[in-house]
Design a protein that fits this description.
six-stranded antiparallel β-sheet, Heat Shock Protein 90, single chain, 13 strands, 479 residues
Length: 479
């Protein structure tokens, strides 16, 4: 996982930097403070030592050889107090040096002068390396005796640097150990945190290959997930959103596949359905062109061609409506509040001509009066017209058709031939006809109820059919 590697390396590098910087800074501060404390203590010891030497010089009675005795006393007291830790200088030349080192008074004097200190102030040098040891030199040009005495005292601070180095090494060792432990913990933690991203990546790749049922597992169970007070991390939210997206994609793909199946079924059924009338039209047209017919036969052939052409026109119109409803679903409909009374006026006007030709009686009933409904007026009008048309085809001349509407939906009832019980479940299939010969004679194609069912579905409703042979049929659209 490339992202995991990048995150892990950067986090580990940041921890390593902090782990090295903080102990290093603390050790540096410790070393500096220890060195400063040791030097301050040494300065105080030098001041006290010089004071003791001055007091003891003043106690002696020098006599006739005063200068000689005074110098001897100073050197003796210097050796007693500082031992091998420094050197006593007279006019820049060593007169007493029991230490293992040689000093350069000129260099010390120059360094003291550049520091801005007074002659009696003690100058302290930075740590110097001599024979593998770390030394700090203290130089006082005027020691406070009578005469040009100056002193150089050294302080061996090697132990401070050794202790600091040992602490640093132990700290580094502990840091490496701790870093290894923390590194393993961070590795496992980041891997657990990043694992859903890997699952997301794999799931996305599988979905891209067409496996739309793939889902990303989430840690929370559904019962816990319903508790909105629980805090969720962003990756888990991404996983849940990904699953919702995958569900939508899968549903959409299934809908497209179902739509494609229905449309292919419609096209196949349409091709089969129009084969017979087209063959008949071609046959009659060819007969009119090649054979001299009597006027009566000629008229019959022309009427047959006309009727079959009308049936094909009606078939194509219903096919377009049905295919459009399959494709658009609810996206293409316009829902608004309509007055049912005005809808019935339009319905009556649309079906009045062929009702009159068949001698049918149409009764309309609205309960309660002035009822209004939120529907697509044109689609509902098409639904009712198809149901009335089917009722008219199933009824004998002079029969009655009742169209009623209430709060629950629409109902169209006839008292005609009825539908066999075993056929009721199939009459809403496209191109399915119970009595094919009667349907074709009346110009039917078996699309009316399929269209009505689809119109009801896009309104969120259902189509219910109740029928009994010889007594009639009642079709209800429940919204």
């Amino acid at each position: 996982m490339r992202l995991f590697g990048k995150v892990y390396v950067r986090v580990l590098a940041g921890i390593l930097l902090v782990a090295a910087a903080i102990p290093g800074y603390l050790l540096w501060e410790t070393e500096k403070q220890s060195l400063q404390d040791a030097c301050q203590y040494e300065e105080e010891r030098i001041w006290n030592g010089m004071s003791v030497i001055r007091e003891r010089v003043q106690r002696y009675d020098m006599g006739l050889d005063g200068d000689f005795v005074k110098n001897a006393v100073i050197m003796k007291e210097f050796r007693d107090i500082f031992g091998t830790q420094g050197a006593l200088l007279w006019n820049g030349e060593e007169v007493c040096n029991l230490s293992a080192y040689e000093f350069a008074p000129d260099v010390l004097k120059e360094m003291r002068e550049t520091s801005g200190l007074g002659q009696r102030d003690i100058f302290r040098s930075k740590p110097q390396t001599a024979e593998g040891r770390k030394l700090v030199l203290f130089y006082q040009e005027t020691a406070g005796f009578e005469g040009a005495y100056s002193v150089v005292i050294y302080l061996d601070v090697t132990d401070i640097f050794i202790r600091t180095r040992n602490l640093l090494l132990r700290g580094l060792g502990f840091t490496v150990f701790l870093l290894a432990v923390v590194g393993i913990w961070i590795y496992r933690s980041i891997y657990r945190v990043m694992e859903p991203l890997g699952a997301l990546n794999r799931a996305a790749a599988q979905i891209a290959e067409g496996e739309y049922q793939i889902r990303v597992p989430t840690k929370r169970v559904p019962a816990i997930r319903k508790n909105r007070r629980l805090q969720t991390d962003e990756i888990e939210e991404v996983a849940e959103n990904f699953n919702r997206m995958a569900e939508k994609v899968e549903k959409h793909v299934k809908n497209l596949a179902e739509l494609n199946r229905k449309q292919q079924q419609l096209l196949g059924s349409l091709a089969h359905e129009i084969k017979t009338p087209i063959t008949a039209i071609i046959g009659n047209a060819d007969m009119l062109l090649t054979i001299r017919l009597r006027e009566e036969k000629r008229t019959d052939a022309l009427l047959f061609i006309l009727n079959e052409g009308k049936r094909l026109s009606s078939l194509s119109e219903k096919m377009l409506k049905l295919a459009g409803l399959y494709g658009e679903q609810k996206a293409g409909i316009e829902i608004r509040e309509i007055d049912i009374g005005k809808l019935f006026d339009r319905l009556k006007s649309q079906v009045s001509v062929w009702l009159k030709e068949g001698g049918m009686l149409l009764y309309m009933k609205v309960t309660p009066k002035g009822l209004k409904k939120w529907v697509d007026e044109d689609l509902i009008l098409s639904l009712l017209a198809n149901l009335v048309e089917n009722a008219g085809k199933a009824s004998k001349p002079g029969g009655s058709i009742i169209v009623s509407v209430d709060e629950t939906g629409f109902t169209v009832e006839d008292f005609g031939t009825g539908i066999p019980k075993q056929e009721i479940g199939r009459v809403t299939e496209a191109f399915y006809m119970v009595d094919k010969s009667r349907s074709r004679r009346s110009g039917g194609a078996g699309l009316g109820l399929a269209l009505c069912r689809q119109i009801a579905q896009v309104h969120g409703g259902t189509l219910l059919i109740e029928s009994e042979e010889g007594k009639g049929t009642k079709v209800s659209v429940k919204l």
